[in-house]
Amino acid sequence: MTAASAASLTGHGVFLEVEGLGIYLRGASGVGKSELGLELVSRGHKLIADDAIEFIRADSSVVGRCPALLEGFIEVRGLGILNVRRVFGDAAVVPSAALDLIIDLGVRGDPTPDERLYGRRGRSLMLGIAIDEISLPRRVGHNLAVLVEAACRDHRLRQAGYNACDDLVARQARAMQHAAETPHQTDTSSEHT
Predict the structure, then answer these.
(1) Using one digit for the tens of pLDDT, what is the confidence trace for 93-102?
(2) In CATH terms, is domain 2-181 a member of 2.30.29.170?
(3) Catalytic (active site) residue 59
């Protein structure tokens, strides 16, 4: 990212509106950000910017938009430059959105036991504002578009106060408590007297 001023910066990646959230896909060059962006647009989500995203601070949020010169275009390795508006229609491109979630595609290695439960989650500081971040590994056979959509839906649930991992842990604790309080019955039906 490059800083244009204290209240703006330019990010490298793809910025989309997915499930009504502003999603910033980032990762190393060649990791497949634009291809994933194209897949998400083909599934009905909206492109805001590819390659260069102008982020500005607006009160207590960060807003991303596309530089005018690049608006509506996406570069996909093997295909070259595509005009998303002409390929998918006017509704496939929107001018800007608030940044709600960062999806980092650069993670490597196997998840720790805690990451298997809670995911690879953190926060990144952009223009002085903490933005939620999820790191997704790129592996053969992963459907990253489905993972991004699920991440967006889960993010909305978390914003509303629901956490699936906490729910499962509480359910297990209740089941263990119930088992500890319930006397164990011995099956005597097979005993001979």
Answers:
(1) 999 999 999 9
(2) no
(3) no
